[in-house]
Specification:
- The chain is mainly α and 189 residues long.
- It has 2 domains: 38-107, no CATH class; 125-189, no CATH class.
- It is built from 8 helices and 2 strands.
- The protein has a two-stranded antiparallel sheet with strand order 1-2.
- Helix 2 packs antiparallel against helix 5 (88-115) and helix 5 (88-115) crosses helix 7 (139-156).
- The chain starts with a helix and ends in a 5-residue tail after the last strand.
């Protein structure tokens, strides 16, 4: 009986996933203006997060630089405290870079793979899906899409995005190469 319940739950989940994929395939493509707006929203959200991480790591640097004078610094061995104090900037910078890389991966890759878009896209009701199947992207495909987007932007100094409004399909270069499409799924009439 328990096996039957588990099978029923899986089949319901599969049916919901199929219905979502079919819905995404039938939604209209997102136009250039809403995609551009999502880039601005993502830029603002990412800026706030990165600024917060920078402030936290700056405070860590300051704390480590004066660790021998703190009550916590008195409780650890003197050599360890001196090591931390002498390398405070390097330690804080390493932690900051690690946290920023993790943030950007989670924000741009994991959110696209697991939720169908970055927070900016989700707030504006658009999703990134596989062009042929309507499925959410795999983590690898989301990462490839991001690498191509960043690479093509750097190489072209952003000019490549000016082509989108005038192209037949209204798709970005990275969408064409990764066989993805951005769909307007919220507020569709």
């Amino acid at each position: 009986m328990e096996l039957h319940r588990a099978t029923a739950k899986i089949s319901i989940a599969e049916e919901l996933e199929k219905a979502e994929e079919e819905h995404f395939k039938n939604c209209p493509d997102a136009d250039f203006s809403i995609r551009l707006a999502s880039v601005f929203v993502d830029g603002i959200l990412a800026y706030l997060a990165v600024t917060g991480l920078h402030s936290i790591c700056g405070a860590l640097d300051l704390h480590l630089a004066h660790i021998t004078q703190s009550s916590w610094g008195q409780q650890i061995p003197k050599m360890t405290a001196l090591f931390l104090e002498n390398r405070a900037a390097h330690i804080a910078l390493s932690i900051e870079l690690t946290l920023k890389i993790m943030f950007f991966y989670l924000y741009f890759v994991a959110s696209t793979a697991f939720s169908g878009g970055t927070p900016g896209k989700l707030l504006l009701g658009i999703r990134v899906v596989n062009r042929n199947t309507g499925k959410k992207l795999t983590t690898q495909k989301a990462l490839l899409r991001l690498v191509i987007a960043v690479g093509s932007t750097l190489v072209s100094c952003g000019i490549i995005y000016l082509i989108i409004p005038f192209s037949d399909r209204k798709r970005a270069f990275h969408d064409e190469l990764t066989h993805t499409v951005v769909k307007k799924v919220f507020g569709v009439k």
